[in-house]
What we know:
alpha+beta; 6-stranded antiparallel beta sheet; elongated; 7-stranded mixed beta sheet
Amino acid sequence: MLVSLRWLRDYVDVPWTPAELAERLTSIGLEVKEMRELKPRFSGVVVGQVQELYRHPQADHLWIARVLVGEPGAAAKTVTLVTGATNLSVGDKVPVALPGAQLWGGATGEECVTIGPHEFVGVRSEGMLCSEAELQVGEDAGGIMILPSDVAIGQPLAEALALEDTILDLEIYANRADLTSVIGVAREVSALTGNPLRRPPLHLTVAGAGTSSAARPAPLPVAVDVQVQDPDLCPRYLATLALNVRVGPSPAWLASRLRAVGVRPINNVVDVTNFVMCETGQPLHAFDLRRIAQQTIIVRRAWAAEKLTTLDGQERELTPDMLVIADPEKALALAGVMGGLNSEIEADTTEVLLEAATFQAAIIRRGALSLGLRTEASARFEKGLDPNLPAVAAARALELLAQVAGASIPEGWVDRYPHPLRPWMIPFRPERINRLLGSDIPPAEMVAILQRLSFTVKMGPGATPQAPAAAAEASAVRGAGASSAAAAAGVVVVPTFRADVTREADLAEEIARFWGYDRLPETMPAGPTQPGGQSAGATLADRIRALLVSQGLSEVITYSFISPRCWDQLYLPPDHPWRRAIPIQNPLSDERSILRTCLLPGLLEVAVRNSNRQQEASWIFEIGTIFIPYELPLVRQPQERPHLGILLVGPADQASEAQDWSRRWPAADLFDLKGDLEQLFERLGAQASFEPVDGSMPFHPGRTMRLVAEGKELGIAGELHPDVLDAWELPGRTVVAELDLEQLFAVTHETRRSQPLPRFPSIRRDLALLVPTGLPAAQVVETIRQAAGLLLRSVRLFDVYEGPQVPAGHRSMAYALEFRADERTLRDEEVDGRIAEVEAALQAKNVQVRK
């Protein structure tokens, strides 16, 4: 948020330089992101007034203006100026660049042009009339800049427009809606300096704000009705009137204030609403009353496909997730975001309905985001505004409209505020605050700090904490129990604009901010402590990451939001469990409209993106959360389960920087994936098996495995179906796996044991087998291990052959078996006996031993 130092000083005396102020604001948590000096990009330009205006006698496209100007220290004089602009009238006050004036600009912004006399078709022009763009005080280059009528003739333009200023760009956090205003920042500066806060005096009474404490509305002279269909979305709507309005340019002081903070002046009515928004933090909107059908305001949800042309000229299609201000016939404005073109203030507007309202933060944020329409108003409403602020802002705006637009302000208002929010009390115990901060701040200093921040402190036994007399949930959050009330040394009454202060710890933070964090002593934390650290599951997930990276895979992170179209691209049947996905209520696009129920779509998107960038090999994995609903639509929170997804496509050497020029690697297949998983399980201490299953979409038939360990199903692995590859436009054979990490964690028995080098030699025997094609190799290995006993140290498959020399329905598989004893040298007879047992066990499985 931009804050003008000139404007800030209207409300509080600042004893520091701009740099010192920026440093002190940052020290209390109000970060100054940037500080810049505003200086005019011209010199020698003064205020002039058009006395005469007539066409050039020899050029129809030019005008001759006789302009009254003045020079510093000299008497006023009239100069002749030639211009091509057509927006001038006699009596207009305009910027005049006299001979010798300098204007900076050009393509680089640093080129300097010196103005001198110039002859236009026989008429000598003694200077130049300037546009906003030429002076770099605005963007309008289509005509001469018309100045407010209250500026003095001959006054230097930089002085008349108050162009010399310092602008602070502040970072306002989401919980500090009170700081989205100049007065809010001034309150912080007042607390820092101890100088009093000067609030603008209010001479009108609107809904309790102003000089009178009475809040009973008087009837408006024009019958205006306000209907709020959903008070939860609009806790307060206050409507007032300004009559006999004269729309025109804003005075110089008002226009300069707005320009300083990046707001373009439009006309005096609109500028007043923008000024009050910047000053108080409460957005306002002015409607042309004659454009409101039946003089009735209705606050409602937008209808499906309802159209509204906003003030920027864009026709927008609305949805029921948006809130609109409407009349009985049409939508007039997108609530909290931008007004509609059909009710804007125009030059002939004389009756203005002024809106000051409070809207639910979430619906404003959703509407602004879905339309891509973030405005100064929506940025404030999104933070959650004080519902008591509209009355103050409305009273201030009406007074300014009377001042700058000649409006007459009738008594009365319409205020829909069914559940007023009142200040709440929280316990205040100085000794507890010092204990929280590890400090020794005097209680009197604490009270002074809180009072400077507009908190009311009540000390003594009669001070009892109370909950606010508003919503029940506020009572639960901000209220204090009887036990804390008894122990309290006092209470603090929290003003309603400080919604972020709900407990005693928040008071400690406020006190620490203004006492000075640098003044807090260095102390050790008191009370019982325990060492922090990751959970066992998070630690094991990190271990899996490290292992997979060491095996040549790269980790990716993808969105939890996916498109429902991905299920069709995977050719999933309608009843597939992956299709039971949770829809997002306010998706930014259809591509991110449901929560993922598996990791595969995200991995496929990465592989496709890589392929489109000529990186056809992708050996990747992701550890992420999937979301499984108990029921749809949701009644309770869904399951959030950690999963591991793996995808391999292309040769391994092309998927990493470690390429091997001495050999050509084959593309990834199911055996590569199985090998990676076996290595992972082995290093995690998980005894997992791979069981063939009949593959259904999205997997290739006959190339799918179920992963099982200790009776638990860990997940599935397989090769994707060719139709799926075509739908995703993948470059070649792709194998994937998805594992439930909670199940994997349950069967992981990772222990680190050191083993001595063998003292005795081993004996190796090879077995050549004819294995039925339907018998998994894992079962063959398991049979060998069980029959061979503890002397068998390793089993390795080193050859597989299927061809004419092998009987139909069989394949030749060769295994290397290594036997060794730890305490002695084995004899051949012992190993022969074990081999005989192995052969007998294999034959029982219909496996033939080839001699």
